[in-house]
Amino acid sequence: MRSFKQQHPVKPLAPATSRFIQLAALCFMAALPVFTSAAAPKWPDRPIRIIVSQSPGGASDMQARMISQPLAEALGQPVVIENKAGASGLIGAELAAKAAPDGYTILLFQDVNTIFPSIIGKLRHDPATSFDPITLVGTGPAVLLANSSSPINSVQELVDYSRKNPGSLSYAIAGVGTTQHLALEVFQQRTGTKMTAIPYKGGGQAIVDVVSGQVPLAALGVPPILTHVKAGTLKVLAVSGRARSPFLPDAPTFLELGVPGLDDINQWNGFVVPAGTPPAIITRLHDEIVRIMGTPEILEKMKTIGMVPTTSPSPEDFKNLIARELERWPAVVKAAGIQPQ
Q1: What is the pTM of this model?
Q2: Contact call for residues 136 and 318 (beta carbons, < 8 A)
Q3: Whether residues 304 and 318 fall in one domain
Q4: Residue 265 near residue 329 (C-beta atoms within 8 A)
Q5: How is residue 111 annotated by DSSP?
Q6: Which family does it belong to (predicted)?
Q7: What whole-number distance in Å separates Cα of residue 336 and Cα of residue 223?
Q8: Both 194 and 276 in a single domain?
Q9: Which percentage of the chain shows pLDDT scores above 70?
């Protein structure tokens, strides 16, 4: 019995026909990117929002605003700031975490976003997995300050006095769980000292009481203290970080003074998007924001808010920073016995 191939022999294609099919196939494959591009939605094709978890006027809000305009020009769409203050920044973070991962919602993500899980406990979002990082945009040290008339003029004098009089000194903070608060807790743990933290609703109120002498010390960030340091109503004892602050060049770092553990503690701001945002959008945002942060205009504006322009080499680098911060704080919070207010 003959096989199917024997019963139905396949005739070879004529050379001209074969060349036509090959040419048609090549044309189809070449057109695929065009079809794909036409089918994919253009990004961005509408306004983008940046959620800021603080009220208008603060250093973080000002930084988001100074970046928003050049970013809008680069992307060809408006970039609008939405201030969602409240619950120590949790309202804004939760709103961003629930947003569609389409590149139209950006969150100004800060150091405190990695601290509050250790203090509050379970949140309605996970700082480690609810967001895809883009880049850092600014950093600043924790600053240990004293009233200008205080007899304490150095970290060593502070340590000596506190060891002899444990618990007698107090220091003002701009709220429970700020980076500056935890930096001073690390300081106490490393130096064997004991002081009492006095929380305020913001750095401005804390400064008033330190300048007036009602509270002898403070642990704050650079932005709210600069005018008072220049005026001589506050004196700086030390700053965190590996290098001296360009805004406080005469102030030594804790590391210089022999106090370990504070060289990598900083206040910082960065940008993230909801988890699942397309990688191409994240890369575009990263590249544009990093470019903007290096422009002379932004570098000059950053001087007015007391923060150092700092960017991440890649989104992955910023992701690793967030992971390290989330891992660091639980032990510090537990040792200090910090409770939510």
Answers
A1: 0.85
A2: yes
A3: yes
A4: no
A5: G
A6: Belongs to the UPF0065 (bug) family.
A7: 26
A8: no
A9: 87
Domain assignment of residue 79, yes or no: yes
- CATH number of 321's domain: 3.40.190.150
Structural domain count of the chain: 2
Burial 205-220 (b: 16+ CB within 10 A, else e): ebbebbbeeebbbbbb
Q: Which two tokens stand for residue 182?
A: 């935890």
Q: What confidence score (pLDDT) does residue 202 get? A: 87
Per the structure, the complete domain to which residue 191 belongs is given by 143-239
- Cα 198 from chain centroid (whole Å): 25
In the predicted model, what is the mean pLDDT of residues 52-81?
Answer: 96
Q: Tell me how far apart the alpha carbons of residues 171 and 193 are, in angstroms, rounded to a whole number.
A: 13
Name beta bridge partners: 220: 143
Mean pLDDT on 220-236: 96
Residue 37, in any domain of the structure: no
Q: How far apart are CA 129 and CA 125, in angstroms?
A: 8
- Based on the fold, state whether residues 205 and 59 are members of the same structural domain: no
**What CA–CA distance (Å, rounded) separates 331 from 341?**
19
pLDDT for res 22: 55
Confidence of residue 341 (pLDDT cuts 50, 70, 90): low
CB 199 within 8 A of CB 340: no
Q: Which of 238, 147, 138 is nearest to 184 (CA)?
A: 238
- Crossing angle for the helix pair 59-75 and 279-293, nearest 10 degrees? 110
Gap between the Cα atoms of 108 and 289, Å rounded: 12
In a domain, 121, yes or no: yes
Instruction: List the structure tokens of 192.
Output: 């064997």
Beta bridge partners of 218: 145, 172
Given a cut of 70, whether residue 8 has pLDDT beyond it is no
CA distance 41 to 273: 19
DSSP 219-265: EE-STTTHHHHHHTSEEEEEE-SSS--TTSTTSPBTTTTT--S-TT-
Whether residue 16 lies inside any domain: the answer is no
CA–CA distance, 274 with 132 (Å, rounded to integer): 6
Residue 107, classed as helix, strand or coil, is strand
pLDDT tens, position by position, 251-275: 999 999 999 999 999 999 999 999 9
